[in-house]
Amino acid sequence: MEFLDDGNYELREIQTLEGHTDRVWSLAWKPTAGVDGVAPVFASCSGDKTVRIWEQSASSRSWNCKAVLEEMHTRTVRSCAWSPSGKLLATASFDATTCIWEDVGGDYECVATLEGHENEVKSVSWNASGTLLATCGRDKSVWIWEVMPGNEFECVSVLQGHAQDVKMVQWHPTMDVLFSCSYDNTIKVWWAEDTDSDNWHCVQTISESNNGHSSTIWALSFNAKGDKLVSCSDDLTIKIWGADITRMQSGDGYASWRHLCTISGYHDRTIFSVHWSREGIIASGAADDSVQFFVESKDDLIDGPSYKMLLKKEKAHDMDVNSVQWSPGV
Question: How far is the C-alpha of 136 from the C-alpha of 92, rounded, in Å?
């Protein structure tokens, strides 16, 4: 995205990356790449049962596929996520497993396979310290795994509460609080008050009755500070939520998330993905084939924050935009 002289923004396509032979479901930027002279790297996962690792050339600035992770998953790979150190990549699949890959000098080895979900695993997420991993699936459950020495993973909690397929899990960026969103139209917040215990439980359910979504919620993302959350849905809206995280960080109990704003009237088909940049720009991708960008409006704060569209890119892809992800430095 470029800022033009006339005060507007422009989104320019710099390259189309081809290699997957089926739809691409998700992308994940490697958190330790793209800084201190290390080339930017991201992973993509697909219905072709593979994961591809892409790296940008320092000289030509073009992106090239550096590795193909295959022959482990037997069905669609729906989600991928790097550990905070960038050493491990978790991949969640419709084959009911989550594979953990270790980067060994550019070669990727599957060092663990997590089993337990009854069927399709839809999403995987690491906590900020890389000590916990969460997965969710069509079996309506959310699993929390503890990362043990020697690439061992122990399930510490199976969380039941959603009434339908769980689409995504996302850890808070600074605290061990887990969020999940579902086909049941709700967002659930999971917390263990004593971080040393395995007493994970649902501390809040955000539903239509408290300004929540009226249809399937596909994705969640936090702002850089972690005091705001954005969600997107099949109801064609994007919603912003806020919480007093300072209270939680000081150990003063759980602080509930409350509705701040609804962004509607922009996408005209299901919104599949949202991602909040460090600079405060929300990107969204949808079944209308567009990518759109929103930013908080500073004009009218009387009724709480409002958001305005910064840019809309029609026909960003020829089909559904399943995933939008800002690079870590943005």
Answer: 9
pTM, whole model, 2 decimals?
0.94
- Residue whose entry in the numeric block shows the structure tokens 């290390």: 38
- Report d(CA 42, CA 104) in Å as an integer: 16
Kindly report, residue by residue over 94-123, the tens digit of the pLDDT: 999 999 999 988 899 999 999 999 999 999
For the record, the structure tokens of 196 come out as 């040393």
**Other CB atoms within 10 A of residue 319 CB:** 8
Measure the CA–CA gap between 191 and 180, rounded to whole angstroms: 12
Contact between 191 and 175 under an 8 Å Cβ cutoff? The reply is no
Q: How far apart are CA 283 and CA 277, in angstroms?
A: 8
Structure tokens at 144: 């929390």
Where b means 16+ CB within 10 Å and e means fewer, 192-226 reads: beeeeeeebebbbebeeeeebbeebbbbbbbbeeb
Backbone angles phi, psi at 301, to 5 degrees: -110, 10
Closest CA to 276 of 314, 317, 310, 320: 310
Predicted pLDDT of residue 58 = 87
Residue 42 DSSP code: E
Q: What is the pLDDT of residues 148-177, one digit of tens each?
A: 999 999 999 999 999 999 999 999 999 999
Sheet holding 258-263, edge to edge: 217-222, 228-233, 238-242, 258-263
